[in-house]
Amino acid sequence: MAVDVYDPPRPLTSLAPEEHGRPPFSTVVAGIDEIDATDPRELSSDRLRGGLYWMARQQRRLEAMQAKWLAEFDKRQASEGDDDATLWLQSNLHVTSNAAYAQVRTARQLERLRHVEAAFRAGQIGSQQVSVICRAMGQIEHTCLEPGGTEQQLTHAAKEMDPYSLQHFWKRLRYEADQEAGVVAEEEERERRWLHLKQTPDDTWRIEGELDAENGVAVRTAMRALMGRGPGKDDTRTPAQRRCDALGELARRCLASGELPERGGQKPQVTLVANVETLRLEPGSPMARLDWGPLVTGKTARRIAEDCDVTPVLVDRKGDILYVGRRTRTVPTRLRKALNLRDGGCQEPGCDVPPDLCTAHHKKHWADGGFTDLPNLGLRCNVHHARNHPENERFRKGAAAQPSAP
Q1: CA 74 to CA 93: how far, in whole Å?
Q2: HEC string for 301-335
Q3: What's the rounded mean pLDDT across residues 32-59?
Q4: Which domain holds residue 210?
Q5: Does 404 fall in a domain?
Q6: Which of 191, 216, 239 is the last residue of a domain?
Q7: For residue 60, which of 123, 162, 312, 366 is within the disulfide window of CB 3.0 to 4.6 Å?
């Protein structure tokens, strides 16, 4: 019977040779300890700025030295038939496989890029700029650019640019010298696009993906237009929450436009299935369902049902359909136009959200017998509509009285 025995990884200190306790290693450690003993709260802003700059330069120099040592170690591991340096980094320095592979790949490339390696060793450029240049030089053979001159240009630019600007510099350099190579590279980037929309066990949705430049800019531009310049009155949502709501609003507007291709013989729309008892918030009423999938509470169902197409369906106790009525709009188009003209935007005091970003809000919900007319309607933006949506007071207070049919 085989028994697996857990063998914990060795701590980093156990890998240190005895020479690390002697100069120059001990001198470096002592100097770091002395600097670390300084209380930054006692230093002037000028000394803090200078110290941060000095530390960054030395950190870059150490990273360059580490890359040089790693390249030599990688070659020896390969020649001796041992595990490659990537696995060693994962096992002993506890980095991810992707990070370990990137470090080894960069170390290998730097041996052939003397201008980049020299600038890195001098602390003039950082690891992010080095990574950009290494990726560029890995693509150089697919262009008509001369490797040596291109490396020098990129290294010089890296001393003055952040990684993002440096990447743009490389793209422009490549395209101006070789348009065909630029087009091929752009198509390769576009081929990497992907998007996953997954429903979680909690009936929420998770978005993961990478958009190409064209689709990404289109989505961002549309979302920014819906988000506005900044949070409005009483808007306590985080930027991430505002982006989420903007994406949802973008989808709803697309559905409402009626321009999407038909599916199943009709224009695609989000379907909310809810009992009248659910909309009235009666105790014991079932949850509503969105598109025969996620479950939502009666409160959310009431809010969604404020301004939608309603199709009444009569069923018996077994759930068999007895009658399907005509679809009607809770707030007809003509009435909505009149509401927009009358209110001119969200009616919450101090809120300036325009009419086209508002929902027609029933002061008394139609499920409770409220009329769909101007006196019972008012515009509310998404934030204030969610906050001020009226609850059925009879059931919220636990009253036993049953409501009459709407």
Answers
A1: 15
A2: HHHHHHHCEECCEEECCCCCEEEECCCEECCCHHH
A3: 95
A4: 194-256
A5: no
A6: 191
A7: 123
Number of domains in the chain: 3
Kindly state the DSSP code that residue 263 receives in the 8-state scheme: B
* Residues 83 and 107 grouped into a single domain: yes
Nearest alpha-carbon partner for 156 in 170, 146, 144: 170
Look at residue 379 and tell me if it is in a domain: yes
Q: Does residue 147 have a pLDDT over 90?
A: yes
Task: Mark whether 119 and 181 lie in a shared domain.
Answer: yes
pLDDT reported for residue 406: 35
Residue with the two structure tokens 């509401």: 339
State the residue for tokens 């199709």.
Answer: 311
> Quick one: pLDDT at residue 177?
94
Predicted confidence band of residue 298 (pLDDT cuts 50, 70, 90)? confident
In angstroms, rounded to a whole number, what is the distance separating the alpha carbons of residues 258 and 270?
12
Which pLDDT tens digit goes with each residue over 3-25?
554 455 555 445 667 888 889 99
At 323 the pLDDT is 60
Is residue 68 domain-resident?
Answer: yes
Give the span between the Cα atoms of 149 and 155, in whole angstroms.
10
User: Does 343 reside within a domain?
Assistant: yes
d(CA 405, CA 14): 78
Does 235 lie in the same domain as 183?
A: no
Query: 238-275: per-residue pLDDT in tens?
Result: 999 999 999 998 998 888 888 888 776 677 787 888 88
Do residues 122 and 158 both lie within one domain?
Answer: yes
- Give the torsion sign (CA, 198, 199, 202, 207): positive
Residue 390: pLDDT band (50, 70, 90) is low
